[in-house]
Specification:
By secondary structure, the chain is of the alpha/beta class. The chain has helices spanning 17-28, 40-48, 64-78, 101-129, 149-169, 187-190, 194-202, 212-223, and strands at residues 8-12, 32-37, 55-58, 83-86, 132-137, 174-181, 234-237. It binds NADP nicotinamide-adenine-dinucleotide phosphate.
Length: 243
């Protein structure tokens, strides 16, 4: 669909769900995809479906040194990084008055510090290349959602981070955008109680839950040359969930 031939793309949380869908769409469109996940076995299985050039790496995005080391390794191997997709994320939902310090800190570490660590390391490389695409997976919840004060705060942080990076990096021909998926079929949503799942489905005008590839196709477009004039955007992808 898009021509990513010869381009190197790093996708975090690529072992399942939306990240796996993104990895598959980017590789289908010709990119060499590095599938990073804390669960390396799952990332290896996904990489096996992404063509011979794809590979899996173990990565905890909340580990700053691991992020820096991975970026150094990729540059040593490939000489460049063309696309970074900050997708890895977790939720630890609880009402504010019951939320523990651990639940707060865990979500902020993975969902906000992770994208910061990797974007900072990759931006240094992309600046010298004078090209690059950074795509951050935020969430519809950034606008606020009951039981998700940690997650909403992290995702709102991702929106602010993305907009700021887009301003700082535009002069180096690097675009930065944030995507806000609505309700997508992954382990994150499959574990919801039946009544909450049904209520979420009811909010989708297009009448179906999203597929990881729905997000993957949008990422592949934004990663392409054809999206070179789109930066700093916060793009909803939810079948109308956010209308
Ligand atoms: P998922 O099915 O849980 O997949 C996320 C992957 O990231 C898992 O393989 C997970 O491993 C991995 N991961 C967790 N912590 C990590 C870390 N510290 N470092 C590296 N990898 C880590 O989730 P998803 O539903 O695909 O969500 C992907 C992204 O989309 C997240 O940022 C999420 O917030 C966002 N999103 C999802 C939805 C939705 O409806 N599904 C809606 C809006 C936004 P483990 O399973 O071992 O934790």
């Amino acid at each position: 669909m898009f021509d990513h031939e010869g381009r190197i793309a790093l996708v975090t949380g690529a072992g399942q769900g939306i990240g796996a869908g993104i990895a598959k769409c980017l590789s289908r469109d010709g990119a060499t995809v590095v599938c990073a996940d804390i669960a390396v076995d799952r990332a290896t299985a996904v990489a096996a479906t992404c063509g011979v050039s794809a590979r899996a790496v173990a990565l905890d995005v909340s580990d700053r040194a691991a992020c820096d080391n991975l970026v150094d390794d990729l540059v040593a191997e490939n000489g460049r990084i063309d696309v970074l997709v900050n997708n890895a994320g977790i939720n630890r939902d609880a009402m504010l008055h019951k939320m523990t310090d651990e639940e707060w800190a865990a979500v902020l570490a993975v969902d906000l510090s992770g994208p910061f660590f990797l974007s900072r390391a990759v931006a240094r490389v992309m600046r010298t290349q004078n090209s690059g695409r950074i795509i951050n997976i935020a969430s519809a919840s950034w606008m606020g959602n009951i039981g998700q004060s940690n997650y909403a705060a992290a995702k709102a942080g991702v929106v602010g981070l993305s907009r700021t990076m887009s301003k700082e990096l535009a002069r180096y021909n690097i675009t930065v955008n944030a995507l806000c998926p609505g309700f997508i079929e992954t382990s994150m949503t499959k574990s919801l109680p039946e009544n909450i799942f049904a209520a979420q489905l009811d909010k989708i005008p297009l009448g179906r839950i999203g597929k990881p590839e729905d997000v993957g196709d949008l990422v592949s477009f934004l990663a392409s040359e054809r999206a070179g004039y789109i930066t700093g955007e916060i793009i909803n992808i939810g079948g109308g969930y956010q209308i």
